[in-house]
Amino acid sequence: MRGAKVKSKSGRRPPVRVKAGPELPLLPIAVGGILIVLAIVLIIIAWNSAKHNTGTVASQTVDSIPCDNLEQTQVHYHTALQIVYGGIVHPIPANIGIVNPASPTCYYWMHVHPANTDTIHIESPKSRTFTLGQFFDIWTKWSGTPQPLDATHVSTFTLTPDQKLVIYIVHGDGQAPVLYTGDPRAIVLTKHEVITLEIAPPTVTPPPAFTFAAGL
After folding, report:
1. Which pLDDT belongs to residue 168?
2. What torsion do the CA atoms of 96, 102, 103, 107 make, to the nearest 10 degrees?
3. Checking CA distances to 206, which of 30, 133, 169, 198 falls within 20 to 30 Å?
4. Is residue 145 part of a domain?
5. What is the pLDDT of residues 84-117, one digit of tens each?
């Protein structure tokens, strides 16, 4: 009979086949998604890097002296520090004030470069007064170990009752060392100044001479 629908032998109608649409190109979509994610990651890294290279690590600030991600050059001079114990100079550690020296993350405005033994680099974006006490506080923060400075303590040295702290200062003017009797923490750091903290006895008079490296 014309127009009659054909049934299967079981009497059921055959399933209707739905024509499939075009397949989506999965590989280009996946690659595109990966590229978008990488682009976002690179943007975040670049943004953080820019902020890191121009900012200050606030959590590292000591005595209102920050630890900057880059060394400052607006104010730049050098002071020498000698610690004499047992009649000999005990060099202060290299890299004081430089956080993560192998790959520096920040520099305090007062720090020590390995190439310049016993030399404090004062590198600040502005002119201000810096003291020896502030340097010892930075030393403490940097090392994670107390580095006191007073009449009976010099860094990790503790004076015994029969010892005393003798302080000499050469002011960078070519004159003879001057005996200093005040608070060692209050000593103001100046250009080409040489500070000698001598734990006596024995007494070394005059204190050991110091010569700044060429170019400093």
Report:
1. 98
2. 10
3. 133
4. yes
5. 999 999 999 999 999 999 999 999 999 999 999 9
Is 32 part of any domain?
A: no
pLDDT beyond 90 at 50 = no
Give residue 175's domain range. 65-200
Per the structure, how many domains does the chain have?
A: 1
Detail the DSSP E strand segments found in the chain. Answer: 56-62, 65-68, 75-85, 88-89, 98-99, 106-108, 110-111, 119-124, 149-150, 153-154, 157-158, 164-170, 178-180, 193-200
Q: How many CB atoms lie within 10 A of CB 113?
A: 20
**Other residues' Cβ atoms within 10 Å of the Cβ of residue 34:** 10
Query: Which parts of 69-109 are beta strand (E)?
Result: 75-85, 88-89, 98-99, 106-108
Dihedral angle at the C-alpha atoms of 123, 129, 135, 141, nearest 10 degrees?
-80
Q: What is the pLDDT of residue 26?
A: 60
- At position 53, the amino acid (one-letter code) is N
pLDDT band at residue 175, thresholds of 50, 70 and 90?
Answer: confident
Amino acid present at 68: D
